[in-house]
Write a structure and sequence with these properties.
The structure is a homodimer. Chain A has 2 domains: 95 residues, 2-Layer Sandwich (Alpha-Beta Plaits); 139 residues, Alpha-Beta Plaits. In chain A, strands 1, 2, 3, 4, 5, 6, 7, 8, 9 and 10 form a 10-stranded mixed beta sheet that branches. The longest helix of chain A is centred in the N-terminal third of the chain and has 13 residues. The first copy, chain A, contains 5 helices and 10 strands, in the order βαββαβββαβββααβ. The radius of gyration of chain A is 19 Å and the shape is globular. At the A-B interface, strand 4 of A face strand 4 of B.
Chain lengths: 247, 247
Amino acid sequence: MKRNIRFTICYDGTRYSGWERQKNTDATIQGKLEAVLSRLCEEPVTIIGAGRTDAGVHAREMTANALVSVSMSCGQIRDYMNTWLPEDICVLDAAEAGPRFHSRFNASGKTYCYTCYIGAAKPVFDRKYVTCLDQLPDVEAMRQAAEFLTGTHDFASFCGNPKMKKSTVRTIDSITITQKGDYLRFSFHGDGFLQNMVRILVGTLLETGFGKRLPDEMKSVLEAKNRALAGFMAPAQGLCLIAVDYN
Amino acid sequence: MKRNIRFTICYDGTRYSGWERQKNTDATIQGKLEAVLSRLCEEPVTIIGAGRTDAGVHAREMTANALVSVSMSCGQIRDYMNTWLPEDICVLDAAEAGPRFHSRFNASGKTYCYTCYIGAAKPVFDRKYVTCLDQLPDVEAMRQAAEFLTGTHDFASFCGNPKMKKSTVRTIDSITITQKGDYLRFSFHGDGFLQNMVRILVGTLLETGFGKRLPDEMKSVLEAKNRALAGFMAPAQGLCLIAVDYN
């Protein structure tokens, strides 16, 4: 029987077309991981990720799992992968998981962080990880708008996939918006997020912060279940998957 | 009479062949700055930097100056430059300076910081700004060795230019070595540094920290005035010019 290995993976998404393997490019996180793990196992191996981050989105701790048949220890598998992976992808941990562990189906929650930069000078050293704003939005207005988003809702208005057939109902436990120096951070915790959802939520909150929307408009945007009524999609580079929870 | 503008410049040196303009490449910090400023001034402009950082070395606050004849305000000059400079070079400040101000000749001190990373996982997000070490060197031994370096000495043993004709005497006021989490930082303050000097100092200190040298060997290395007796040159990417002082 194959071993089920659970991986914790950190990556800088700048150079990649997202998590998901694609036919027309090998510049995907899943593709890079599978190539290295398949070479180690001397057979094709599929890596299942807890989610599929968009092109340019980063992750501090993505969880993934794969069924493998090698005799190496988990530490040796981790070290082998880190030796052959590019410098912008790192396996933080590899651990033996139960045979039924599935990184996507078993995930009970996710934390995403979106970082905006509001300084006057260009952010030379973290330019790949922040989205620059010309001015500070009204944080209090954004917090008021965010209150309408927490809880269990149909987030169809905030779904980037117009052909989404499955349920668009999700639960957001908390949204925190904090300013610290030149950085404005949006932190989202929920049971799961639709395609582009965090970026569209941030875009809509920013439009509220810049006075283009009133905070309580968020309620009618949610109720409309119409993507056209929500705001712009904030750029990928400011977004980072912080962690995935399992019960 | 031309105006003398003093610039404070931040840059990520990763993509550049160093500060100094070169004939065979336009990938230099000075070259990029001069190209933009010359276009603004509609005539060739020379930018004088307080120092010449090596290829791959970064700066948080490099000081430079240039004689220009434009009627724009300093803020407008700064904004124009930032609009046209690449995203890894930023003019933090432009200010009117006295006609006699010379960023190199008037500099009275410089602070450099060298950052090593000692974590188990690859430093995905700051991989361009740190040098990875396999293990933590003996910090106390390095501090003892560093004590021999502070003060006024002939640093010929730590000079990367074998054809150096000018004085190799410099004064280092302080060297601090601090460990914080996975980061080990060397901070140097002195009146000036020779070519590659900080990197060779760090390399020699690391060899001490790894037990390849005894701390008090540093004294004889200094006295020998022989580059061959000092240690290896630490990689460029860990080095950052923090600030330049003027009296």
